[in-house]
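Quick one: co-fold with zinc ion.
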Amino acid sequence: MKHKTSVLIVNSKAKSGKVFQVPTHIIVNWRKYAFFLVLLFIAFFFVSGFLIYQNTSRFYQERLDRANYVRSRIDLDKALKSFASIDSGVFRINALLQQKGFEKMKIDNMGGVSSSFDITRINAYADFYQKQIWDLENKLNTVPLGLPSGGEITSSFGYRSNPFTRGGAEFHSGVDYRGHVGDSIKATGSGIVIFAGFKAGYGRCIIIEHKNNMQTLYGHLRQIGVEKGEWVNSGQLIGLMGSSGRSTGPHLHYEIIENGEYNDPEKFVSTDDEKEDYG
Ligand SMILES: [Zn+2]
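Sure, here it is.
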């Protein structure tokens, strides 16, 4: 039988008190027990503190390792050189376009990427050039470039002897491409069809209005595949080659009109004749 001590708790308002039986050694050794409890509390405090510290430090270590890894994978010099190369490329394309007379097609470059290139702004740089290249693509699409059909040139732009009147010189306002009846005729640039029908001399004819006050004309067609007011994309099939109108055989008469003046379409196909200018 353990030795116990009775404790009587009396409420001054209550009629009867309550009697508790408490082991005597608790009352005798209460300091020891209190000390033990405090010790337990301190131990708990330290252990939990240590565990929290350990977890957060591991978390930060992992983050730090990841950051170091990412940094080790980035070659700042290489990125700098790449962006400088893109920048000068955009500058050269710009110069080339302006040399070819496309003043309105100016695209922006950053004017050289400096050595103070900040890698944290890499997304801003990438966005900038992405937009410029998109812009350039859109602009180039609107300019009539390249061939409207396959086939060799049978008559160039400019003055030529008139095949109909014989002897008299005549101004040829475009280029003639020989081919076969039914050959594909493609729009050389995107734009709006402003004429699609029969035109004196030209036979079945399509005129497309491009940006920068430029128009392209496709004549002597067998068949017209677009309607007035229609938007056409660069490279889109718009009709078939024929010999309608004032024509001596199946061919495409192709014109480029800029600001109301006839331009030599061959300038928009080949750049060979201007190569010496770059020297
Ligand atoms: Zn012609």
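If it helps, Residues 66 and 72 are 10 Å apart (CA to CA).
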